Amino acid sequence: MNSGGTLFDGGNSQWVGPGGQDIGYTDVIVRHGYDATDNGTLKLLLSTLNWDAEGWPRF
C-alpha cells in the first residue's frame, strides 16, 4: 500500500488474468485463469505452493 509488495502471479502467454486465489493445506494454491491457447476458456489452476526461508510463498 506504500509502494511495496511483489506481484505473485501476473500470468504468462498461456494463462491470462489469473486471480481469485485461495490456499489449501498450506501447500496448494488454487485460482482461475483464462487459457489463451483454448479461445480464452476460463479454467481452474492448481499449483504446488512452496515457502522460502523468510516465509514468503513461491510456486
Q: Quick gist of this model?
A:
The protein is mainly beta and 59 residues long. It has no helices and five strands.
Query: How many strand units?
Result: 5
User: Beta-sheet strand percentage?
Assistant: over 45%
How do the strands of the widest beta sheet line up side by side? 1-2-3
Radius of gyration from the alpha-carbon trace, in angstroms:
13 Å
* Assembly form of the protein: single chain
Spans with pLDDT under 50 lasting ≥5 residues? none
Tally of alpha and pi helices = 0
Task: Determine the structural class based on helices, strands and strand pairing.
Answer: mainly beta
Query: What is the share of helical residues?
Result: under 10%
Largest sheet: 3 strands, antiparallel
Nearest-integer average pLDDT: 89
> What's the helix-strand series?
EEEEE
Outline type: globular
Separation, N- and C-terminal Cα atoms = 23 Å
Task: Describe this entry's structure for a reader.
The chain is an all-beta fold and 59 residues long. The chain is built from no helices and five strands. 2% of the residues are buried. The model has no long low-confidence stretch (mean pLDDT 89).
